[in-house]
């Protein structure tokens, strides 16, 4: 399973503007990270996903997007895992 997780992390890092990727289990333990994502954030990312799911418990797991001026973090749950994708925002064209 570790090889499959590594393959997923490596594949996600190849996408445009992605600067980091994190995958955590249901307990918030890091299963793997790449780039600017840090394993110490795995518990917080899992908790955000779990808390967001309580807003509408009868719906599928929500996608949580955190944005700052230059970066966005997209958090979503896939089965027993929660993933976070860190992206550098594209500059606005004038």
Overview of this structure, please?
- With 94 residues, the protein is an alpha+beta fold.
- The protein is 26% helix and 36% strand.
- Strands 2-1-5-4-3 form a 5-stranded antiparallel β-sheet, with helices on both faces.
- A hairpin with a 4-residue loop joins β1 and β2.
- The termini are far apart.
List keywords for this structure.
94 residues, alpha+beta, five-stranded antiparallel sheet, 26% helix, globular
Q: For the terminal residues, how far apart are their CA atoms?
A: 46 Å
Q: Major beta sheet, specifics?
A: 5 strands, antiparallel
Shape: globular
For the biggest β-sheet, the strand order reads 2-1-5-4-3
Instruction: Assign the structural class, choosing from mainly alpha, mainly beta, alpha/beta, alpha+beta, or little secondary structure.
Output: alpha+beta
**Average pLDDT, to the nearest integer?**
92
